[in-house]
Amino acid sequence: MNALAALVGAVVGLLLLRHWIGAATGASLGWLIASGVLPRLFGGFQTGHGDALMPAVFTLLGRLAKADGQVSRAEIDVCEALMDRLQLQPRARHAAVGAFNAGRRDDHDFSEAFATLRDARRHGSLFLNLFVDMALADGELHAEERRLLGKYAWMLGLRESALETLLLQRARGGTRGGGHADPYAELGLSPAASEQDIRRAFRRLVSEHHPDKMAARGAPPEAVHLAQQRTQAILAAYERIKSARGMK
């Protein structure tokens, strides 16, 4: 995993800075993130809600899953797939399941989870993707799910237009849960996009999701891990488009 993170960091650094220094810096940061060194170094800059962030996310995922009145097998699968992606150990996995189940209860007090979510605004786009995964798990976006997504987006400091763009991306085949997707949709573009637009979208998304920035902003290790996966998906989509178009 450390070697893969270093490789991804090197490629992204080279593409962004177009110099071997960018590759070397990216490789070093990738290794530091995967090894857990960088998150520990920057842990002191967390808001105090770092340990509560992922339980809050699973609680709010549970709320979304129950929004249409019942929790489907597909929604449980999304939750379990996220735990797999995070590589949660048994104790952490048990806590995540407990948080998800708490969110399913109609009498649960969500005030603490909402407060924690508001403190995660710097990582808003990453977590909104997780919430959209859950809302679309059964193939249909119900009215209450859409209302909750709007509320979550607002708490994460994101505009309604950002949520609409993400939903449109998913409708065109964008990534769900780290799977393969249409590369243009992955970058939030249409196949008619110009090369300039493609490069601009790639750089913006990498800057937004790059794990070294997440770690430096005090994100918990689980969020950094998700950001690393998201960056890999963005990079893979960009390389597919470049290859298909013969871009340099």
UniProtKB/TrEMBL annotation:
CDD domains: DnaJ (cd06257). PROSITE patterns: DNAJ_2. Gene3D superfamilies: DnaJ domain (1.10.287.110), TerB-like (1.10.3680.10). It holds the Pfam family DnaJ. Keywords: Chaperone. Residues 182-248 form the J domain. InterPro entries: DjlA_DnaK_co-chaperone, DjlA_N, DnaJ_domain, J_dom_sf, TerB-like. NCBIfam families: PRK09430.1. PANTHER family: CO-CHAPERONE PROTEIN DJLA. This is DnaJ like chaperone protein. It comes from Pseudofulvimonas gallinarii.
